[in-house]
Amino acid sequence: MLKQILYSHLLVIVSTALLTPIAVGKPVIMPGTKQLIQGVYTQDLEAAGYFQQGVSDYSVGNLAAAYSAFQKAVERDPSIALAYHYMGNVLLENGRNEEAIAEFSKAIELDPSLAESHYNLGIALYRQGRLDEAIAAYQRSIAINSRNSNAYYNLGVAFYEQKNLDNAIEAYRQAIAVNPKNVKAQLNLAIALEQQGNFDAAIETYQRVTNLDPKSANAQVSLGNLLVQQDRPAEAIVAYNEAIRRQPGNPLAHYNLGILLYQQGKLQEALSPLRRARKIYEDQGNNSKATELTTLINQIKQRLETPKK
Q: Which residue ranges contain the repeat TPR (predicted)?
């Protein structure tokens, strides 16, 4: 019975949280005249001045001042699409998603070629749970700028939440094709492949993540979990130990290693990682998990102390 309980604990943690969409992109504004600033044309020099001031304030993180300046710019000249885009960015960064959607939509209405506006509109729509619309916005952004790895990544996140694994996998692969060092896309691809049942490809992808990100302990744990599922315990032990080396304070790595060693009949070896996991949970204030581990450790110690018949 003990072995079944321990095995069930291992199964519970064979999961990885999906990464959330990336932060809002900030377009680069190139120097220009008062009349022409990255495609911003206006006959109103005062509007151009307000716009330039908004860009300056935005670039140093003074969002309130930037928003005010952009508002003044569009009051003078309502045709400045990038001013609406920047106001959308400010609102998005402040969590005012519905208002941001309105500003990005206005920017796109004035200039449908603004790939960043479509992209950030997608983020705002995603945050509102409007997945179909978010997907459409990301796809429009990609159609304009096919070199934005983050747009493919966010597209994959939205498809994943719709449980559309095939499209999510394709989007993540496109993100990686544009930027092979996109670790988030690599990790989410591994998760989706695992859930699709393509285990060999998932293992290979987890391994790429661990190579790309030397500090990635969670990917190592996920790799170990999948290797356990595939009945490759020796490789799983290596993965868990590597996770511990990278992040000694990761309780799951110690916990899973201890459970796996126990399942292999290596009772004495199992105690050390389980005790370490318990100590970490205690330090984190997770008393319920620490108590659960104390029960497991005591049961293993009892088995070690019971003479074999």
A: 47-80, 81-114, 115-148, 149-182, 183-216, 217-250, 251-284
202: phi then psi, degrees, rounded to nearest 5: -65, -45
Q: Look up the domain containing 269 and give its range.
A: 1-21+187-304
Tell me whether residue 302 is exposed, middle or buried, using C-beta atoms within 10 angstroms of its C-beta: 0 to 12, 13 to 18, 19 or more: exposed
**pTM of the predicted model as reported, rounded to 2 decimal places:** 0.84
pLDDT in tens, 132-151: 999 999 999 999 999 999 99
Is residue 178 a part of any domain in this protein? Answer: no
Helix 267-284 and helix 251-263, axial crossing angle in degrees, nearest 10: 160
pLDDT tens per residue, range 101-113: 999 999 999 999 9
Please state at what angle helix 81-93 crosses helix 97-110, rounded to 10 degrees: 160
Which helix (DSSP H) or strand (DSSP E) does residue 98 occupy? helix 97-110
Q: How many folded domains does the chain comprise?
A: 1
Q: How do the residues of the chain divide into helix, strand and coil, expressed in percent and rounded to 5?
A: 75, 0, 25
Asked if residue 131 belongs to a domain, the reply is no
Burial of 147 by CB count in 10 Å (0-12 exposed, 13-18 middle, 19+ buried)? exposed
CB 186 within 8 A of CB 212: yes
Bridge partners for 37 per DSSP: 40
> pLDDT of 189-237, one tens digit each?
999 999 999 999 999 999 999 999 988 899 999 999 999 999 999 999 9
Q: Tell me, what CATH number does 274's domain have?
A: 1.25.40.10
